[in-house]
Design brief:
Blueprint: H1 2-25, H2 35-39, E1 53-56, E2 60-63, H3 68-74, H4 86-95, H5 101-114, H6 119-127, H7 134-144, H8 150-157, H9 165-175, H10 178-191, H11 205-213, H12 219-229, H13 238-248, H14 253-264, H15 272-287, H16 294-306, H17 324-336, H18 341-360, H19 371-380, H20 389-410, H21 423-430
Antiparallel strand pairs: 1-2
The protein binds amidocarboxymethyldethia coenzyme *A.
Amidocarboxymethyldethia coenzyme *A (AMX) binds near residues 43, 269, 305, 362 and 363.
Length: about 425
Protein backbone atom coordinates (compact mmCIF):
# COMPACT_ATOMS: atom_id res chain seq x y z
CA UNK A 1 0.00 0.00 0.00
CA UNK A 2 1.25 3.48 -0.89
CA UNK A 3 -0.06 4.60 2.51
CA UNK A 4 2.32 2.28 4.33
CA UNK A 5 5.28 3.22 2.11
CA UNK A 6 4.62 6.93 2.62
CA UNK A 7 4.25 6.42 6.36
CA UNK A 8 7.56 4.50 6.52
CA UNK A 9 9.29 7.37 4.72
CA UNK A 10 7.74 9.98 7.01
CA UNK A 11 8.77 8.00 10.08
CA UNK A 12 12.38 7.80 8.88
CA UNK A 13 12.38 11.55 8.24
CA UNK A 14 10.85 12.36 11.62
CA UNK A 15 12.88 10.13 13.94
CA UNK A 16 16.04 12.30 14.03
CA UNK A 17 13.99 15.31 15.21
CA UNK A 18 12.69 13.43 18.25
CA UNK A 19 16.12 11.90 18.97
CA UNK A 20 17.80 15.30 18.78
CA UNK A 21 15.28 16.97 21.08
CA UNK A 22 15.72 14.22 23.63
CA UNK A 23 19.51 14.02 23.45
CA UNK A 24 20.45 17.68 23.14
CA UNK A 25 17.52 19.55 24.68
CA UNK A 26 16.05 17.10 27.16
CA UNK A 27 16.43 19.54 30.08
CA UNK A 28 14.69 22.52 28.45
CA UNK A 29 11.53 23.44 30.41
CA UNK A 30 8.22 23.28 28.51
CA UNK A 31 5.69 23.91 31.27
CA UNK A 32 5.38 24.49 35.00
CA UNK A 33 2.83 22.76 37.22
CA UNK A 34 0.80 24.70 39.79
CA UNK A 35 -1.15 23.33 42.74
CA UNK A 36 -4.39 24.03 40.85
CA UNK A 37 -3.14 21.99 37.90
CA UNK A 38 -2.05 19.09 40.08
CA UNK A 39 -5.48 18.91 41.74
CA UNK A 40 -7.46 20.14 38.76
CA UNK A 41 -6.96 17.55 36.06
CA UNK A 42 -3.60 18.81 34.73
CA UNK A 43 -5.46 21.50 32.75
CA UNK A 44 -3.01 23.34 30.50
CA UNK A 45 0.08 21.34 31.52
CA UNK A 46 2.06 20.86 28.32
CA UNK A 47 3.45 17.36 28.60
CA UNK A 48 2.13 15.41 25.61
CA UNK A 49 3.48 15.42 22.06
CA UNK A 50 1.50 14.81 18.89
CA UNK A 51 1.78 16.08 15.32
CA UNK A 52 -1.56 14.67 14.15
CA UNK A 53 -3.64 17.66 15.27
CA UNK A 54 -3.33 20.85 17.30
CA UNK A 55 -6.05 22.69 19.21
CA UNK A 56 -5.80 26.45 19.41
CA UNK A 57 -8.11 27.85 22.14
CA UNK A 58 -9.55 30.51 19.81
CA UNK A 59 -9.24 29.01 16.37
CA UNK A 60 -10.13 25.41 17.25
CA UNK A 61 -8.74 22.26 15.72
CA UNK A 62 -6.29 21.90 12.85
CA UNK A 63 -5.71 18.45 11.40
CA UNK A 64 -2.07 18.23 10.27
CA UNK A 65 -1.99 22.01 10.02
CA UNK A 66 -5.27 22.45 8.14
CA UNK A 67 -8.55 23.87 9.51
CA UNK A 68 -11.76 21.88 9.08
CA UNK A 69 -12.90 23.72 5.90
CA UNK A 70 -9.39 23.45 4.42
CA UNK A 71 -9.30 19.72 5.19
CA UNK A 72 -12.69 19.11 3.55
CA UNK A 73 -11.61 21.19 0.57
CA UNK A 74 -8.33 19.52 -0.17
CA UNK A 75 -9.19 15.80 0.10
CA UNK A 76 -10.54 13.64 -2.76
CA UNK A 77 -14.34 13.52 -2.75
CA UNK A 78 -16.58 10.56 -3.34
CA UNK A 79 -17.99 11.04 -6.88
CA UNK A 80 -21.27 12.93 -6.80
CA UNK A 81 -21.08 13.50 -3.04
CA UNK A 82 -20.22 16.58 -0.94
CA UNK A 83 -17.73 15.12 1.53
CA UNK A 84 -14.35 13.38 1.17
CA UNK A 85 -13.57 9.71 1.58
CA UNK A 86 -12.88 8.88 5.23
CA UNK A 87 -10.15 6.57 3.96
CA UNK A 88 -8.36 9.48 2.25
CA UNK A 89 -8.65 11.51 5.43
CA UNK A 90 -7.04 8.65 7.35
CA UNK A 91 -4.16 8.62 4.83
CA UNK A 92 -3.77 12.34 5.46
CA UNK A 93 -3.88 12.07 9.27
CA UNK A 94 -1.31 9.30 9.25
CA UNK A 95 1.17 10.82 6.81
CA UNK A 96 0.38 14.58 6.62
CA UNK A 97 0.27 14.16 2.83
CA UNK A 98 -2.90 14.75 0.85
CA UNK A 99 -3.48 11.54 -1.10
CA UNK A 100 -4.37 11.48 -4.77
CA UNK A 101 -7.62 9.87 -5.80
CA UNK A 102 -5.69 6.73 -6.80
CA UNK A 103 -3.92 6.53 -3.42
CA UNK A 104 -7.23 7.06 -1.66
CA UNK A 105 -8.98 4.35 -3.65
CA UNK A 106 -6.21 1.91 -2.82
CA UNK A 107 -6.99 2.40 0.89
CA UNK A 108 -10.73 2.13 0.17
CA UNK A 109 -10.19 -1.27 -1.51
CA UNK A 110 -7.76 -2.50 1.17
CA UNK A 111 -10.18 -1.53 3.94
CA UNK A 112 -13.02 -3.37 2.18
CA UNK A 113 -10.97 -6.57 2.35
CA UNK A 114 -10.43 -6.11 6.05
CA UNK A 115 -13.84 -4.96 7.23
CA UNK A 116 -15.78 -8.22 7.84
CA UNK A 117 -16.74 -8.64 11.47
CA UNK A 118 -15.71 -12.04 12.90
CA UNK A 119 -18.64 -14.29 13.81
CA UNK A 120 -17.48 -14.59 17.43
CA UNK A 121 -17.84 -10.82 17.89
CA UNK A 122 -21.45 -11.06 16.78
CA UNK A 123 -21.93 -13.98 19.20
CA UNK A 124 -20.44 -11.99 22.09
CA UNK A 125 -22.72 -9.03 21.37
CA UNK A 126 -25.79 -11.20 20.95
CA UNK A 127 -25.07 -12.80 24.33
CA UNK A 128 -25.21 -9.41 26.08
CA UNK A 129 -28.54 -8.19 27.50
CA UNK A 130 -30.20 -5.96 24.88
CA UNK A 131 -30.52 -3.10 27.32
CA UNK A 132 -26.71 -2.89 27.60
CA UNK A 133 -25.53 0.60 26.63
CA UNK A 134 -24.30 0.62 23.01
CA UNK A 135 -20.96 2.10 24.14
CA UNK A 136 -20.44 -0.96 26.37
CA UNK A 137 -21.20 -3.19 23.39
CA UNK A 138 -18.88 -1.17 21.15
CA UNK A 139 -16.01 -1.33 23.62
CA UNK A 140 -16.61 -5.05 24.28
CA UNK A 141 -16.71 -5.77 20.53
CA UNK A 142 -13.33 -4.08 20.07
CA UNK A 143 -11.83 -5.87 23.05
CA UNK A 144 -13.17 -9.24 21.91
CA UNK A 145 -11.08 -8.91 18.73
CA UNK A 146 -7.84 -8.48 20.68
CA UNK A 147 -6.91 -12.08 19.89
CA UNK A 148 -6.32 -10.93 16.29
CA UNK A 149 -3.42 -8.65 17.26
CA UNK A 150 -0.43 -8.85 14.92
CA UNK A 151 1.58 -6.74 17.34
CA UNK A 152 1.19 -9.34 20.09
CA UNK A 153 2.13 -12.16 17.72
CA UNK A 154 5.29 -10.45 16.50
CA UNK A 155 6.20 -9.13 19.94
CA UNK A 156 6.05 -12.66 21.33
CA UNK A 157 8.26 -13.89 18.50
CA UNK A 158 10.80 -11.18 19.35
CA UNK A 159 11.05 -7.95 17.40
CA UNK A 160 13.25 -4.87 17.39
CA UNK A 161 11.82 -1.65 18.89
CA UNK A 162 12.42 0.08 15.57
CA UNK A 163 9.87 -2.25 13.94
CA UNK A 164 7.08 -1.89 16.51
CA UNK A 165 5.14 0.52 14.36
CA UNK A 166 4.74 -2.00 11.52
CA UNK A 167 2.51 -4.57 13.26
CA UNK A 168 0.79 -1.69 15.09
CA UNK A 169 -0.07 -0.22 11.69
CA UNK A 170 -1.37 -3.61 10.55
CA UNK A 171 -3.54 -3.89 13.69
CA UNK A 172 -4.87 -0.39 13.06
CA UNK A 173 -5.69 -1.21 9.43
CA UNK A 174 -7.40 -4.43 10.49
CA UNK A 175 -9.40 -2.76 13.25
CA UNK A 176 -10.41 0.57 11.74
CA UNK A 177 -12.51 -0.70 8.78
CA UNK A 178 -14.42 -3.02 11.13
CA UNK A 179 -15.55 -0.20 13.42
CA UNK A 180 -18.39 1.26 11.31
CA UNK A 181 -19.51 -2.30 10.58
CA UNK A 182 -19.43 -3.09 14.31
CA UNK A 183 -21.34 0.11 15.09
CA UNK A 184 -24.04 -0.64 12.50
CA UNK A 185 -24.29 -4.23 13.76
CA UNK A 186 -24.88 -2.96 17.33
CA UNK A 187 -27.47 -0.47 16.08
CA UNK A 188 -29.46 -3.08 14.16
CA UNK A 189 -29.09 -5.61 16.98
CA UNK A 190 -30.35 -3.25 19.66
CA UNK A 191 -32.97 -1.22 17.88
CA UNK A 192 -34.00 -3.16 14.76
CA UNK A 193 -34.62 -6.65 16.17
CA UNK A 194 -31.24 -7.88 14.97
CA UNK A 195 -32.40 -7.47 11.37
CA UNK A 196 -28.91 -7.08 9.87
CA UNK A 197 -27.98 -5.65 6.46
CA UNK A 198 -25.03 -7.16 4.55
CA UNK A 199 -22.12 -4.93 3.51
CA UNK A 200 -22.20 -3.51 -0.03
CA UNK A 201 -18.90 -4.29 -1.78
CA UNK A 202 -19.25 -1.20 -3.99
CA UNK A 203 -19.27 1.28 -1.14
CA UNK A 204 -16.58 3.19 0.76
CA UNK A 205 -16.48 3.37 4.56
CA UNK A 206 -19.01 6.19 4.95
CA UNK A 207 -21.30 4.92 2.21
CA UNK A 208 -21.32 1.37 3.52
CA UNK A 209 -21.97 2.57 7.07
CA UNK A 210 -25.11 4.42 5.94
CA UNK A 211 -26.13 1.34 3.93
CA UNK A 212 -25.66 -1.07 6.87
CA UNK A 213 -27.47 1.31 9.21
CA UNK A 214 -30.38 1.24 6.73
CA UNK A 215 -30.46 5.03 6.24
CA UNK A 216 -30.70 6.56 2.75
CA UNK A 217 -28.60 9.34 1.17
CA UNK A 218 -27.41 11.89 2.12
CA UNK A 219 -26.72 10.00 5.37
CA UNK A 220 -23.57 8.60 3.72
CA UNK A 221 -22.24 12.18 3.60
CA UNK A 222 -23.41 12.82 7.16
CA UNK A 223 -21.36 9.78 8.21
CA UNK A 224 -18.26 10.97 6.32
CA UNK A 225 -18.54 14.46 7.79
CA UNK A 226 -19.23 13.13 11.28
CA UNK A 227 -16.34 10.64 11.35
CA UNK A 228 -13.87 13.23 10.08
CA UNK A 229 -15.04 16.00 12.43
CA UNK A 230 -14.81 13.77 15.50
CA UNK A 231 -11.50 12.14 14.61
CA UNK A 232 -8.92 14.03 16.61
CA UNK A 233 -8.68 16.90 19.10
CA UNK A 234 -5.00 16.76 20.01
CA UNK A 235 -3.81 14.41 22.77
CA UNK A 236 -4.99 15.60 26.17
CA UNK A 237 -8.72 14.81 25.93
CA UNK A 238 -9.86 11.74 27.84
CA UNK A 239 -10.33 9.33 24.91
CA UNK A 240 -7.09 10.27 23.14
CA UNK A 241 -5.08 10.38 26.31
CA UNK A 242 -6.44 7.06 27.58
CA UNK A 243 -5.72 5.33 24.28
CA UNK A 244 -2.19 6.72 24.29
CA UNK A 245 -1.64 5.86 27.97
CA UNK A 246 -2.75 2.26 27.60
CA UNK A 247 -0.76 1.83 24.38
CA UNK A 248 2.30 3.22 26.14
CA UNK A 249 2.51 0.00 28.16
CA UNK A 250 2.91 -1.72 24.75
CA UNK A 251 -0.68 -2.90 25.00
CA UNK A 252 -1.96 -3.41 21.45
CA UNK A 253 -4.42 -1.27 19.48
CA UNK A 254 -7.44 -3.34 20.55
CA UNK A 255 -6.74 -2.95 24.28
CA UNK A 256 -5.86 0.71 23.87
CA UNK A 257 -8.85 1.73 21.76
CA UNK A 258 -11.33 -0.17 23.91
CA UNK A 259 -9.99 1.72 26.95
CA UNK A 260 -10.20 5.07 25.14
CA UNK A 261 -13.80 4.33 24.17
CA UNK A 262 -14.65 3.71 27.83
CA UNK A 263 -13.42 7.23 28.56
CA UNK A 264 -15.43 8.65 25.68
CA UNK A 265 -18.53 7.13 27.33
CA UNK A 266 -18.39 9.67 30.19
CA UNK A 267 -21.04 12.45 30.22
CA UNK A 268 -18.39 15.20 30.50
CA UNK A 269 -16.76 13.88 27.31
CA UNK A 270 -18.37 12.04 24.37
CA UNK A 271 -21.63 11.16 26.07
CA UNK A 272 -22.49 14.88 26.06
CA UNK A 273 -24.05 14.49 22.59
CA UNK A 274 -26.58 12.04 24.03
CA UNK A 275 -27.13 14.39 27.00
CA UNK A 276 -27.84 17.33 24.66
CA UNK A 277 -30.63 15.44 22.93
CA UNK A 278 -31.98 14.12 26.20
CA UNK A 279 -32.01 17.68 27.66
CA UNK A 280 -33.74 19.05 24.56
CA UNK A 281 -36.38 16.32 24.49
CA UNK A 282 -37.19 16.84 28.19
CA UNK A 283 -37.48 20.56 27.56
CA UNK A 284 -39.91 19.97 24.69
CA UNK A 285 -41.93 17.59 26.85
CA UNK A 286 -42.21 20.22 29.56
CA UNK A 287 -43.44 22.72 26.97
CA UNK A 288 -46.35 20.37 26.29
CA UNK A 289 -46.90 21.64 22.75
CA UNK A 290 -46.21 25.33 23.53
CA UNK A 291 -43.89 27.18 21.13
CA UNK A 292 -40.39 27.50 22.62
CA UNK A 293 -39.26 31.07 23.27
CA UNK A 294 -35.91 32.50 24.30
CA UNK A 295 -37.35 33.27 27.72
CA UNK A 296 -38.53 29.67 28.25
CA UNK A 297 -35.13 28.35 27.12
CA UNK A 298 -33.39 30.72 29.54
CA UNK A 299 -35.58 29.52 32.43
CA UNK A 300 -34.90 25.87 31.62
CA UNK A 301 -31.14 26.46 31.41
CA UNK A 302 -31.18 28.20 34.78
CA UNK A 303 -33.21 25.31 36.26
CA UNK A 304 -30.46 22.95 35.08
CA UNK A 305 -27.70 25.09 36.60
CA UNK A 306 -29.62 25.66 39.83
CA UNK A 307 -30.08 21.93 40.28
CA UNK A 308 -26.28 21.57 40.18
CA UNK A 309 -26.06 20.08 36.69
CA UNK A 310 -24.01 21.20 33.70
CA UNK A 311 -25.48 22.48 30.45
CA UNK A 312 -24.49 19.68 28.08
CA UNK A 313 -22.76 20.67 24.86
CA UNK A 314 -21.39 23.93 26.28
CA UNK A 315 -17.95 24.69 27.69
CA UNK A 316 -14.56 23.19 26.98
CA UNK A 317 -11.31 22.51 28.77
CA UNK A 318 -9.20 24.15 26.04
CA UNK A 319 -11.47 26.03 23.62
CA UNK A 320 -12.47 29.62 24.35
CA UNK A 321 -14.68 30.25 21.30
CA UNK A 322 -17.46 28.42 19.47
CA UNK A 323 -16.08 25.04 18.43
CA UNK A 324 -15.48 25.01 14.64
CA UNK A 325 -16.81 21.43 14.67
CA UNK A 326 -20.08 22.98 15.92
CA UNK A 327 -19.94 25.60 13.18
CA UNK A 328 -19.26 23.04 10.49
CA UNK A 329 -22.30 20.99 11.49
CA UNK A 330 -24.40 24.13 11.82
CA UNK A 331 -23.50 25.03 8.25
CA UNK A 332 -24.62 21.56 7.16
CA UNK A 333 -27.95 22.15 8.95
CA UNK A 334 -28.39 25.60 7.40
CA UNK A 335 -27.98 23.99 3.98
CA UNK A 336 -29.93 20.75 4.44
CA UNK A 337 -32.47 21.32 7.22
CA UNK A 338 -32.82 25.08 7.79
CA UNK A 339 -36.50 24.96 8.76
CA UNK A 340 -36.44 21.82 10.88
CA UNK A 341 -38.03 22.73 14.26
CA UNK A 342 -35.44 20.85 16.32
CA UNK A 343 -32.62 22.70 14.53
CA UNK A 344 -34.41 25.98 15.22
CA UNK A 345 -34.62 25.08 18.89
CA UNK A 346 -30.91 24.12 19.00
CA UNK A 347 -30.16 27.50 17.37
CA UNK A 348 -32.26 29.25 19.99
CA UNK A 349 -30.29 27.53 22.75
CA UNK A 350 -27.09 28.70 20.98
CA UNK A 351 -28.40 32.24 21.22
CA UNK A 352 -29.31 32.03 24.89
CA UNK A 353 -26.96 29.57 26.65
CA UNK A 354 -23.67 31.52 26.38
CA UNK A 355 -25.30 34.52 28.08
CA UNK A 356 -26.68 32.33 30.86
CA UNK A 357 -23.30 30.70 31.46
CA UNK A 358 -21.60 34.09 31.44
CA UNK A 359 -24.10 35.41 33.93
CA UNK A 360 -23.46 32.42 36.19
CA UNK A 361 -19.78 33.22 35.88
CA UNK A 362 -18.28 29.78 36.45
CA UNK A 363 -17.54 28.25 33.06
CA UNK A 364 -14.33 29.58 31.48
CA UNK A 365 -15.86 29.01 28.06
CA UNK A 366 -19.59 29.69 27.61
CA UNK A 367 -19.59 28.68 23.93
CA UNK A 368 -20.91 25.44 22.40
CA UNK A 369 -18.70 22.44 21.67
CA UNK A 370 -19.12 19.76 18.99
CA UNK A 371 -21.78 17.87 20.96
CA UNK A 372 -24.32 20.69 21.03
CA UNK A 373 -25.02 20.36 17.31
CA UNK A 374 -24.43 16.76 16.28
CA UNK A 375 -27.56 15.07 17.63
CA UNK A 376 -30.07 17.15 15.68
CA UNK A 377 -28.58 15.98 12.37
CA UNK A 378 -28.85 12.34 13.41
CA UNK A 379 -32.41 12.88 14.61
CA UNK A 380 -33.40 14.51 11.33
CA UNK A 381 -32.19 11.50 9.34
CA UNK A 382 -34.18 9.14 11.54
CA UNK A 383 -31.57 8.04 14.03
CA UNK A 384 -33.60 8.87 17.10
CA UNK A 385 -32.06 6.39 19.52
CA UNK A 386 -29.83 8.99 21.10
CA UNK A 387 -27.99 6.65 23.42
CA UNK A 388 -26.30 5.47 20.20
CA UNK A 389 -24.82 8.87 19.32
CA UNK A 390 -21.60 8.44 21.26
CA UNK A 391 -20.86 5.26 19.30
CA UNK A 392 -20.76 7.42 16.15
CA UNK A 393 -18.31 9.70 17.95
CA UNK A 394 -16.33 6.58 18.88
CA UNK A 395 -16.02 5.45 15.26
CA UNK A 396 -14.70 8.87 14.28
CA UNK A 397 -12.42 9.22 17.29
CA UNK A 398 -10.72 5.93 16.37
CA UNK A 399 -9.23 7.55 13.24
CA UNK A 400 -7.25 10.05 15.28
CA UNK A 401 -6.24 7.96 18.26
CA UNK A 402 -5.17 5.00 16.12
CA UNK A 403 -3.03 7.27 13.94
CA UNK A 404 -1.52 8.64 17.14
CA UNK A 405 -0.58 5.31 18.71
CA UNK A 406 1.01 4.17 15.44
CA UNK A 407 3.24 7.25 15.65
CA UNK A 408 3.82 6.61 19.38
CA UNK A 409 5.37 3.26 18.41
CA UNK A 410 7.30 4.75 15.50
CA UNK A 411 8.91 7.43 17.65
CA UNK A 412 9.44 5.12 20.61
CA UNK A 413 7.42 7.20 23.07
CA UNK A 414 7.97 5.94 26.58
CA UNK A 415 5.59 4.20 28.95
CA UNK A 416 3.63 7.01 30.65
CA UNK A 417 4.29 7.43 34.34
CA UNK A 418 3.75 10.91 35.82
CA UNK A 419 4.69 11.39 39.47
CA UNK A 420 2.12 11.86 42.21
CA UNK A 421 2.52 13.77 45.48
CA UNK A 422 0.55 13.67 48.72
CA UNK A 423 -1.74 16.44 49.99
CA UNK A 424 0.78 17.05 52.79
CA UNK A 425 3.51 17.59 50.19
CA UNK A 426 1.33 20.13 48.35
CA UNK A 427 0.65 21.91 51.66
CA UNK A 428 4.37 22.03 52.30
CA UNK A 429 5.13 23.45 48.84
CA UNK A 430 2.36 26.01 49.41
CA UNK A 431 3.93 27.03 52.73
CA UNK A 432 0.92 25.94 54.81
CA UNK A 433 2.00 25.22 58.38
N1 LIG B 1 -22.54 24.01 32.43
C1 LIG B 1 -22.42 24.32 33.73
N2 LIG B 1 -21.25 24.51 34.36
C2 LIG B 1 -20.14 24.45 33.60
C3 LIG B 1 -20.18 24.17 32.22
C4 LIG B 1 -21.44 23.93 31.64
N3 LIG B 1 -21.57 23.60 30.36
N4 LIG B 1 -18.91 24.16 31.76
C5 LIG B 1 -18.10 24.41 32.81
N5 LIG B 1 -18.85 24.59 33.92
C6 LIG B 1 -18.37 24.78 35.29
C7 LIG B 1 -17.53 23.60 35.71
O1 LIG B 1 -18.35 22.51 36.11
C8 LIG B 1 -16.70 24.19 36.82
O2 LIG B 1 -17.52 24.25 37.96
P1 LIG B 1 -16.91 24.01 39.44
O3 LIG B 1 -15.95 25.16 39.63
O4 LIG B 1 -18.10 24.05 40.31
O5 LIG B 1 -16.23 22.68 39.39
C9 LIG B 1 -16.46 25.60 36.32
O6 LIG B 1 -17.49 25.87 35.36
C10 LIG B 1 -15.11 25.79 35.65
O7 LIG B 1 -14.97 24.82 34.64
P2 LIG B 1 -14.10 25.08 33.31
O8 LIG B 1 -12.70 25.30 33.74
O9 LIG B 1 -14.76 26.14 32.50
O10 LIG B 1 -14.29 23.72 32.51
P3 LIG B 1 -13.50 22.35 32.70
O11 LIG B 1 -12.26 22.44 31.90
O12 LIG B 1 -13.36 22.01 34.14
O13 LIG B 1 -14.52 21.30 32.06
C11 LIG B 1 -16.07 20.50 30.45
C12 LIG B 1 -14.74 21.24 30.69
C13 LIG B 1 -16.26 20.26 28.97
C14 LIG B 1 -16.03 19.15 31.18
C15 LIG B 1 -17.22 21.40 31.01
O14 LIG B 1 -17.28 22.59 30.27
C16 LIG B 1 -18.57 20.70 30.98
O15 LIG B 1 -18.91 19.97 31.92
N6 LIG B 1 -19.39 20.90 29.88
C17 LIG B 1 -20.66 20.21 29.73
C18 LIG B 1 -20.43 18.79 29.25
C19 LIG B 1 -19.97 18.75 27.80
O16 LIG B 1 -20.53 19.39 26.94
N7 LIG B 1 -18.95 17.96 27.54
C20 LIG B 1 -18.42 17.74 26.18
C21 LIG B 1 -17.09 18.41 25.95
C22 LIG B 1 -16.56 18.12 24.55
C23 LIG B 1 -16.23 16.69 24.43
O17 LIG B 1 -15.34 16.20 25.08
N8 LIG B 1 -16.95 15.95 23.64
Amino acid sequence: MKLKKTLAKKIEEHRPRTTRLLKEFGDVEVSKVTVAQAIGGARGVRCLVTDVSYLDPFEGIRFRGRTIPETFEVLPKVPGREYPYVEGFFYYLMTSEVPTEKETLEVVEEFKKRRALPQYVKDVLRAMPRDTHPMTMYSAGILAMQRESEFVKQYNEGMSKMEYWDPMFEDVCNLLPKLPVLAAFIYRLKYKDDDQIDANPDLDMGGNFAHQMGIAEPYDDVARMYFILHSDHESGNVSAHTTHLVASALSDAYYALSAGINGLAGPLHGLANQEVLSWTMKFQEQLGGKEPTEELVREALWDTLNSGQVIPGYGHAVLRKTDPRYTSQREFCLKHLPDYPLFKLISMIYKVAPGVLEEQGKAKNPWPNVDAQSGVIQWYYGLKEYDFYTVLFGVGRALGVLANITWDRALGYAIERPKSVTTAMLEEVAGIK
